[in-house]
Write a structure and sequence with these properties.
single chain, about 270 residues, alpha/beta, TIM Barrel, 8 helices, 10 strands, about 40% helix, globular, binds zinc ion
Length: about 270
């Protein structure tokens, strides 16, 4: 009787992961996130990555909402992953030619804060963001996801320098301190317009089929998904399908080599 080769058996035994994330988390989207977490818990998904915006669209720092930060600390203690997600989550100006303007403004609805960011601005916003989340809110921050997954080269270099462990693109998880990328396709819906909602439900189903065998599959939820019943229903059906396919829930932090410590704060220049 022939034995399977070690390579075949290793592949068969490698756990296939499901990384669920909730984007654009701030005090105003807490209720949608809590509802999502409740539903996930009922399905057995007990750990997701929470993408927190320190000052959503220029609002007061989220650390000023004591109830919000206590809730987040409880979630972090329960195994959820805290990820810095931009600073304002809004871009002030997009420069360059027609393509740059199209990507920066139209594709992201003006949310591509790190798309064209320069090194000094990136460094300042990363430090201020970490100060709000780690220092003031007492949260263990491990990684950074740029709004709309758009990140300039200078911005990425500043994430590495700040000691952040990961960032993400639409198709991969970038292990910043190891210069390695994990392929990780994402299922995400668009809810900005009725036609986008219709197309994205078809697209997501197709994309899930294309990437059915991927070792890591990501499902990214946004607060607005919960304002549209058809989108929310599609979101839940994708989560259930991934679990039915035998995927194990994980966070971005769970995928980091060597179980690293949360990102340390750098000394800040005197104001
Ligand atoms: Zn976002």
């Amino acid at each position: 009787m022939s034995r399977p080769s070690s390579r075949t058996s290793a592949r068969a035994e490698a756990p296939r992961r499901l990384v669920v994330s909730f984007h654009d988390l701030h005090p105003g989207s807490r209720a949608a996130c809590a509802r999502f977490l409740d539903g996930l818990g009922a399905l057995g998904v007990d750990r997701i990555s929470l993408l927190v915006v320190p000052r959503w669209h220029g609002d007061a720092p989220c650390s000023e909402d004591a109830g919000f930060t206590a809730w987040l600390r409880g979630l972090a203690a329960a195994g959820h992953d805290i990820c810095l997600h931009g600073f304002f989550h809004r871009v002030e100006a997009v420069t360059g030619g027609a393509v740059n303007r199209l990507v920066g403004r139209h594709y992201t609805a003006g949310e591509g804060e790190y798309y064209q960011i320069d090194a000094a601005t990136a460094r300042d916003r990363i430090d201020r963001g970490l100060h709000i989340l780690a220092q003031e809110a007492g949260l263990p921050v491990m990684g950074f996801t740029p709004p709309a997954w758009l990140l300039s080269e200078a911005g990425r270099a500043e994430l590495v320098a700040a000691g952040l462990h990961y960032t993400t693109t639409f198709g991969a998880i970038d292990l910043l301190q190891h210069d390695r990328r994990l392929r990780a396709p994402t299922l995400v819906f668009s809810c900005r317009a009725a036609w986008r909602r219709g197309v994205s439900r078809i697209w997501v189903r197709f994309w899930a089929w294309v990437h059915a065998g991927a070792p890591i599959l990501r499902i990214a939820a946004h607060p607005c998904d919960f304002e549209h019943p058809a989108i929310e229903a599609s979101l839940w059906s994708r989560v259930r399908a991934a679990l039915a396919a035998g995927r194990t829930p994980a966070t971005y932090r769970d995928l980091l080599p060597g179980d690293p410590a949360p990102v340390p704060l750098r000394p800040r220049a005197a104001a």
